[in-house]
Amino acid sequence: METKVLTNLSKSMAILAISSLTTHAIQAQSLVRGQVTDTKGEPLMGATIKVKNSQEGAITDLDGKFSFESKRTLTAKDRLEVKYVGFKTQEIEYSNKALQVHLEEDAEEINEVVVTALGIKRDEKGLGYATTKVEGSQITGTMPANWSSALTGKVAGLSIISSGGPLSTSRISVRGDVSLNANGNNALVVVDGVPLSSPMTNPGMAYGAGDAAELSVDYGNGFSDLNPEDIESIQVLKGASATALYGSRAANGVIMVTTKSGAGAKKGLGVSYSAHVSMDNVMRWPDYQYEFGQGQAKNIGAEGTAYAGQHYYSYGAGPDGTPSTGGTSSAFGPRFEGQMFYQYSPENQGRADAATPWVAYKDNRKDLFQTGYTLTNSVALTGKSDRGNLRASITHTKNEWILPNTGFQRVSAMVSAAQQISRALRVNFKTSYTYRKINNTPALGYNSNSIAYFLIFQNPNVNLDWLRPMWKKGQEGLEQLQPYSSYIGNPFVTLYEAENPSEKHNVVSTVSANLKLSSKFDFMIRSGIQLSADQREQHRPISDVVFRNGFFKKENVFDYELNSDALLTYHDSYDGGFHLNASVGGNMMQQRYDLLSASVNGLITPGVYKLSNGISNPNVVNTIRRKALNSLYFTANLSWQSKLFLDVTGRNDWSSTLPRNHRSFFYPSVSASAVMNELFALPDPVSFFKLRASFAQVGNDTDPYKTSAYYDNSNFPGAAEVASTLYNQDFKPEISTNYEAGFDFRMFDNRIGVDFSFYYNRTKNQILDAPLDPTTGYSRGTINSGCVRNRGYELEITATPVLTRDFRWNTTLTWSKNDNKILSLAEGADENQVISTVGTASIIGRVGGTTGDLWGYKLVRDPEGNVIIGDNGLPEQADEIEYVGTAYADWKAGWYNEFSYKGFKLGILLDGQVGGTIYSMSFHKMMEQGKLTQSLNGRLPGTEYYMDANDPRIAAAGYTPQSGMYMIAPGVVRNDDGTFSPNTKVVTIESFYKEYYRRANVETNSFDASFLKIREIRLEYELPKKVLEKSPFSKASIAVYGRNLWCFTDYPLFDPESVALDGSSMVSGIETGSLPTTRTFGFNLNLTF
């Protein structure tokens, strides 16, 4: 019995043991987890990890982490295969511990990781649209004052215009202007996921001569103070498919700035130091004439005077009663031949007691300028451990610009930190603070007390040193020294007394948390803020040309934008090689702009610039703008075997600036790409061939307070006034529809590459303020108006023509062409949509034209094209304005070459454009006054218009015979029978130039804006590691560089890239009193400890 029991017990135990083992075998699983990074420790999102010879695997998340369970028990004999495009595939042994995989870049792979919308990192290989990446070293290579200037010539389809001056504030646009609103074409700048608002507050006008108008002053915008030393890279997202997830403000492209962090540093502590020293001078001068001095053609000495029958000059009346000729701004006076004339005396600040030699002072404009300099010193500390990293930096920049008493100082501090709190949670934090102080920035534009105005009106016979005392003797601080005209400000008073100071504080901060919910789900929350406070002033002394009793203005500009995002991401791989990455999220944006401005016209005490020093109560203006935007969006990325890719996105915005019934608007995008060389067997020389295509729509809203009746501020305390712009309760959001197609083709192990894109974009429902009949009580009204098309091509060719052990030559050519066309305007609207007007030149949009068309008066011509001359012997004036040209170039290009030999590296960048038209107000005035060499035609023997004094036609016309003073205007005159015959009427050269180049004649004062610039040259030497072995440095390099070295163009003034800063708008195609562009030579030292 006992034996039987034992036997049964043994059987039961055996059965239980077998059952237990069987169950264990059935449930056996192995957990595979770890992280994939590059060799610098930067997490690689989207890397694939799978058990070799199986379909079991996973894709890394945002932090490069992965986790999955195998259905079988894995041992050290099992191999895991880790792949990431652009890196060498790695096989590793399985371990039940957390794996740390470091992948090495594959030099033969052309693909790279790019940062796309919302900061999501993607394989470039899988993108269905064009993007361009610019490394931070390319930004700091020649260290421009404004970081955005360094993008010029490096990105196909990118356009950057700047107002000039020390800050060189710029406007960035991508693939042409899409809006009829001059301020509606700006690309969105995003820094570490934080969109930057970029309002430009400038109450002044580009043209204000003779008016009590404020000058344009460039105090910078929202992104101008970004520290170049903190930039890791810049990704330019071009098409709507690339930018759709950023919403309405991304309709014109996105400039994504990624700042430096400690992720790529070595473990432990590290220190780096960078120094830049650069010098600036004027890149290019107009051809001023110094053959003839101040005066007019009519200044012929009367009988009985010392200068009887002669062309003479006299500052004030001569001792013999000779009338004064020194009150004119024109330079049609006597030729410089050593004559003795009564001129200005700096000793008695009036007419000299004795005649002095009549000579030209050829440096009387150039000597107003100095050699500017910029000093930049930057120190960065990095720290890195297994669970986190930290980077802290501080940069100091001091700029003394090329005009005395102008420039700025800037201090930037930045902290970047990331910490792995737990296996599932990672936190990132970045903050930067910038303090910028401007003691004085020069005013811009054509206004009686701007430096540009002085450069125009300065006469060849005036010694600049005569003006240096600034004030009339005994009237210091009360009456500025203006020997020649009360309409021309003393340049030294303008520079040292009429100052435009500013102090600005700017903070950009972002914090994000990434939570790994499971092996397939991640959740990210992020919040970022940009906040700036700018205190500005304008000082105008007593006896100022515009404000005779002095003027003081104080502005406090407060601006902030808060963005908060939440993003849930799902990622998984499936049998057959399919991979899916899908996200859904939302954004809440709040914007506030607050301008408090107070000014007094008239000062009690000279030189005291306070509101309490005004002779009357301050005029106070307060402008407040608030805007909110709520959004929901999704994105899905599907790929098959890393050969075929499909992306789908959608976003819905709710904007506070739109009417309630149109406040919500949705826009989708679809893009696809196919890697042809992996789908098909192509010839061996082909390294990579990708086709891509996309479709997208992007919506856009407008500025606040256009939907309801609001009152504007009044100049009278406690009062308000009806707005001049009629509101609209039913306008719709702008919608841009974009199509794009292209290819990326590489050959011979990527030694040659061609990237081509074609795009077609239509923007309809343009939101703008159109002119109204004044009898309505409003000057403008908000409407939806028309449709604008942009169609273009972009080409980027890269090559490595020479590659040896020690020598490498890389070359990159970028080329782009954009065709802009207005397809329609609002039904019933005026056929001419005025976009901008400066002086007598206008940018006007018409159906069939472009948004950059320049309009104005032209010469009147006969059917054969000859200029028609009137009865007065001068060109007839037209009755109506006409199309003159377009500000837009036919095409733009850039060509960068880099030569490396051992530790030496030489980089050369050329860029330019063909086509485009620019109207120059400065040229008009200097030709009208005879200040440029072009005005010597007819005045010097051998020139086309020249008439000798012995020419009988001069006396027959009743003129006093003088050589080089008269001419016959080329053209024809009308006959009574309607025919035309050659003009034969003699006129003075002065009168011809005054009429031919009059301000309103936009045709004769406009020029081809084509140019070629040697934009950058940089020679760098990196010390060999052997040299540094016994030093405290792990890396060291020195470099010399130049920027804006030469410009080849037919444009006769400073720079064909000049624009007019008119209020808060930069107007292309119009120049009004521009200042010189600087040429820079610099030295750079980089040390890493």
Quick tags:
1089 residues; siderophore uptake transmembrane transporter activity; five-stranded mixed beta sheet; 22-stranded antiparallel barrel; 62 strands; Immunoglobulin-like; Maltoporin, Chain A; mainly beta; tonb box; elongated; membrane; signal
Quick synopsis:
Helix content is 7%, strand content 45%. The chain is mostly beta strands and 1089 residues long.
Please tell me about this protein's structure.
One of its GO terms (molecular function) is siderophore uptake transmembrane transporter activity. It is built from 10 helices and 62 strands. It is mostly beta strands. The strands form 16 sheets. It has a 22-stranded antiparallel barrel. The protein has a 5-stranded mixed β-sheet with strand order 10-16-17-13-14. A hairpin with a 2-residue loop joins strand 13 (188-191) and strand 14. The radius of gyration is 35 Å and the shape is elongated.
SS-derived structural category: mainly beta
CATH superfamily of the largest domain: TonB-dependent receptor, beta-barrel domain
Largest sheet: 22 strands, antiparallel, barrel
Radius of gyration: 35 Å
- Write down how many β-strands occur, each being a DSSP E stretch of 2 or more residues: 62
CATH topology of the largest domain: Maltoporin, Chain A
Structure annotation, total helices: 10
Oligomer: single chain
The count of domains is 3
Look at the structure and give the CATH class of the largest domain. Answer: Mainly Beta
- Helical fraction equals under 10%
Uncertain regions spanning at least 5 consecutive residues: 1-28
Strand content: over 45%
Categorize the overall geometry.
elongated
Report mean pLDDT, rounded to a whole number. 89
